[in-house]
Amino acid sequence: MAFRRALPAHLVNNMHTAMLRLTAMLLAVLVMAQPALSRSTLQERIEAQRQKALHTQARLHEKRGELHAAQVRVGNLQGQLAQTSAAISSVNVHIGELAAQEAVTQRQLAWNTVQLTAAQQTLKRHSDALNRRLVDIYEHGDLGYLEVLLAATSFADFVERWDDLRLVIAANQRAVRERKAAEKRVAAIQSQLQAAQAAVQASEQAQERAKNQLSMLANERAQLVTIADEQRRHVASQVAEMEDLSSNEEAQLEALIVERERELAAERAAAAARARAQGVAGNPPPEGAPGGLSWPVSGTITSPFGWRHSPFGSGLEFHQGLDIGAPMGATITAAAGGTVINAGWYGGYGNYILIDHGGGISTGYGHCSQIFVANGQQVQKGQAIGAVGSTGASTGPHLHFEVRINGKPVDPAPRLR
């Protein structure tokens, strides 16, 4: 049997090393190819999810506007209802005053009735006296005044008859005047009574009409308040549902971004494996190592990392970064070199930039008014990446700056130089 000649040991070792390198290179290519294929798809998913979240945010903003308008309408209607209720109370007070006035008028009417009765009795006496005089004249004949005087038997009798005639004439005239005066008095009292009664009745009727109209208006306004409040509650329910939806969509967006961070870490691991397979030293530590971050904007810290009272009045909250006060539009620079993994709207952060620096370190820049970089872009330390703004959940122009290690927020202050 023939035997093959054995290869030298050094050739066997070289071939073994070459095979290992080739295998490592193939594995690295396969590892790199998979993220390359998925990176585009994942980035598209991130952008699609961002647009979905933005659309929900826009609808939520619109619904909040509707809710504010509904709240204003309810407040206005409640104010109108209160005014109507106050007017009804005022009318009731006036009706009470009219009732007191009516009581006074009724007492006056009672007194006038007594006076009317007395005047009617006086009128009756005068009428009876005059009637008796007329009957007497009719029964005894209407002797002329001259005949009465000429029938005197002496001068003394003449004077006496003259005085009697004057008394008779005066009595007749007085009786006529007193009857006419009594008739006028009765007519005046009756007119006053009728006028007073008519005035009180007219005022009472007017006040009752006003009260009825106000009551109808109050009922209508109360119904409007009920309807408007129901609409407000309905819109408030829609706002609450959309807030939940918005929170869920933002959580999904955050999950996609975290997944993208993992992909970047996998790519770096594959690159390191390839470098080792090729016998090349590993890449130098990233600039984003702890203690190597530069200030992203010139300004002062207005809110530090940690627990604080919410600027929106909802109790305590954990502040996951630093708020750095700066003018609107001030330039924001990258705290270290790295890869942009988010450049766009990100819920309460508003326009948000997230840069991965390798080694599990990333930095975030929130509330930007402008973004100068794009997803996947490589940036250098100190490069302009955006401008200070007040987008998202913000109370004024500032930069919200975060540092994360393996996805967990840490205090940026000790790491800034």
Report on this model:
The protein is an alpha+beta fold and 417 residues long. The chain folds into 2 domains: 262 residues; 133 residues, Glucose Permease (Domain IIA). Helices cover 63% and strands 15% of the residues. The strands form 3 sheets. Strands 1, 4, 6, 7, 8, 10, 12 and 13 form an 8-stranded antiparallel β-sheet that branches. A 3-stranded antiparallel β-sheet has the order 5-11-9, with no helix packed on it.
Shape: rod-shaped
**Helix percentage range:** 55-70%
What percent strand? 5-15%
Q: How many DSSP-defined strands?
A: 13
Distance, first to last CA: 77 Å
Any idea what the radius of gyration is?
55 Å
Query: Quick one: biggest sheet?
Result: 8 strands, antiparallel
The count of domains is 2
Average pLDDT: 80
Order of helices and strands: HHHEEEEEEEEEEEEE
Oligomer description: single chain
How many DSSP H or I helices?
A: 3
Structural class: alpha+beta
Unreliable segments of 5+ consecutive residues = 1-18, 22-37, 281-290
